[in-house]
Amino acid sequence: MKIVTNKAVFNRPLYLESGRLLESYEIMYETYGEMNADKSNIIIITHALTGSHHAAGFYEGDRKPGYWDALIGDGKAIDTLKYFVVATNNIGSCFGSTGPMSLDKNGKPYRFKFPILTISDIVKAQKSLWDKLGIGHVKAIVGGSMGGMQALCYAIEYPDFADIVIPLATTAYTRPWAIAFNKVTMEAIRNDPEFKDGYYDSKDIKENGLKGLAVGRMAGHISYLSSGSMNEKFGRKYVAQDGLYELFGRFEVESYLEYNGYNFPHNFDPLSYLYIIKTINIFDAARGSDKLEDVLGRIKSKLHLISFSGDMLFFPSEMEEIKIVMDKIGNSDKCTYDMIESDYGHDAFLVEVEKFEDKIIQMLEGKYE
Prior knowledge:
Blueprint: E1 3-10, E2 14-15, E3 21-22, E4 25-32, E5 42-46, E6 72-73, E7 78-79, E8 84-88, H1 119-132, E9 138-144, H2 146-157, E10 162-168, H3 176-190, H4 202-208, H5 211-224, H6 227-233, H7 252-263, H8 270-281, H9 292-296, E11 302-308, H10 316-328, E12 335-340, H11 348-351, H12 357-364
Parallel strand pairs: 5-8, 5-9, 6-7, 9-10, 10-11, 11-12
Antiparallel strand pairs: 1-4, 2-3, 4-8
Helix pairs in contact: 1-2, 3-5, 3-8, 5-7
C-alpha cells in the first residue's frame, strides 16, 4: 500500500462559528493508494477524539499500525488497490495540524487564546484542503465517534460533496451522559498542579506525564468499553504480585486502566484534549434549527448508519433516532441503519471490524439497501 504524508498550509483566515477566526492554519493529511483519472474513487476518513491522519499502515520502526488498519489497506474493506483514501488530522489536535500549542503570529503558543472549534469548523477547514487538492466531489466519507459527527456534518452542510456517507458509533447531538464523562477529565486536568493553569512546558508533559489527564483518560476508557467486555476480559482476576488485603492492591481491570491512563499523556497534549472534548460536548447537528428534521432534510447522499449494541458512550438509540427522523421526513430511501451485536463497547468500531467490514464493502459498491 502506497502511503504519502503531507502538510497543507493555509495563509487565509478561517472564519469560525464562534465569530472568531484563525488567521492561518495547517492540516496534516495522509493518502493511501492512487487517485484514478476522473477522481471517482476518493474516500475520506474522519477520525475520533484521539485519532490522527495516520489511519492505516506502518511508519518505519512502528510496532503498531494506523488506528483503522484492519479496515483500510490493500484487499481490505476500504481497498486501497481500488480506492484513493485520504485521512486528515483535525485542527485542534496535536499531531501536526494547528491546535492550542501551535505558535501564533507572535511566535508563542496559542494556549487559551486558541478559539473554541465546532465540528462544522473542523469540516470547513477540511473542505479548504479538498479545494486546494482539486477535490470537488468524493465517493464516500467514513468516520467513527467524533469522526462520525464530521461525516454527518458533511452530509448536512455539503449535501452535494459525497455520494455515500458512513457514520459509525456516533450521535446527532451529544447527550449529558457523554458530557459527564468529559467533565471528569476536564476537572482532573484543571486541578492538577502540573497543568500550571495551561502554562506547562510540553516537553515536561511528554517526559513526565500528567496525572490529571491520566485519571481523566481512565474515566474515558470506562465509557469506551462495556460491562460485558470488562467481564470477559478481566472478570474478578487480581494482579498476581499484589496482595488481596493491601489497600492499593489491584484487580486486573484497575491495572489496565492505570496502564492506559498513565501512558496516554506522554503522547497527547492536555490542552488539545480539553479543546477537543469541548468540541464534542457542544456538537449538535441541528444547531440553529428547532428540529433535527430540518437539517436531515438537506441530505442528498446515501447515508449508512452503523451502531453497536454494547456502546456505552453513544447509545444505539441515538443513531436509530437519525434513521427514524429520515423515515419520518420521507428520506427512508436515502438512509439505512444497522446495529451490530457487540459486547465490546464504544471502541467496537475500531477493534471488531470483522463484524461490519462486509457491510462496508457493499455500501461502497452501492449494493446495500
